[in-house]
Amino acid sequence: MSIFARLFAAGADLAEGRGLGKLRAKLAAGVEGVVVEVGAGAGHSLSHYGPEVSEVIAIEPDPYLRSVAAQRATERVRVVEGAAEDLPVADGVADAVVFSLVLCSVNDQAAALAEAARVLKPGGRLHLLEHVVSPSIGPLRSVQRALDATVWPRMFGGCHCARDTVAAVEAAGFTWHVLEPRNYPERPRLPVSPHVYAVATRPS
């Protein structure tokens, strides 16, 4: 059982009340139909999906986090084992795919985004809340890159501070519908502070 998974679940509980819950609610707003949530973690996003959502397929590779998410699941939620790079979901079944603080830690961003495109219906949308590389060249970006090359991924379950997730989504062929840079917390205090909230349409 992963020590990091336990710490992550406890930290997520704390972060929900410090602003992350509001961002998760914004991420879930407007989502409808069949939703595939990739890297569902301890299931903190599940309560934010509205009545327009008919089914949530919550994918989580870690057994401890899966068990916690299952306790938060309702009748319309299926919590299943799987990895972002190999989703246990058939082609073209999802109206929406949701990534919430996940693409920083997947082994292969391009493969994960290709899988998202595969399971989405034509016109389906990708919903993202991700921390990203600092948008400006300066001390924060330098710190991010230094940490990625040394201790950060080892300490935080494969998380990377300096991934250019916006560029990765564009390279995967998605078209932006909403792209909103933001800071969480309000002022950058950590290497993972710069965030984006975004919605993108599946490549045709």
Please, could you describe this protein's structure?
This protein has helices spanning 3-28, 63-72, 109-119, 139-148, 152-155, 165-171; strands at residues 33-38, 53-59, 77-80, 94-100, 120-131, 175-183, 194-201. The chain is globular, with a radius of gyration of 16 Å. Strands 3-2-1-4-5-7-6 form a 7-stranded mixed β-sheet, sandwiched between helices. With 204 residues, it is α/β, with parallel strands linked by helices. The mean pLDDT is 89. The longest helix is centred in the N-terminal third of the chain and has 26 residues, at 3-28.
Q: In a few lines, what is going on in this structure?
A:
The protein has 204 residues and is α/β, with parallel strands linked by helices.
Number of E strands: 7
Shape designation:
globular
Cα separation of the termini: 41 Å
Summed over residues and divided by their number, the pLDDT gives a mean of 89
Poorly predicted regions: none
Largest sheet, strands/sense/barrel = 7 strands, mixed
What's the helix count?
6
Radius of gyration: 16 Å
Strand fraction band?
Answer: 25-35%
Find the structural class using helix and strand composition. Answer: alpha/beta
Strand order of the largest sheet: 3-2-1-4-5-7-6
Helix content: 25-40%
Q: Give me the strand/helix succession.
A: HEEHEEHEHHHEE
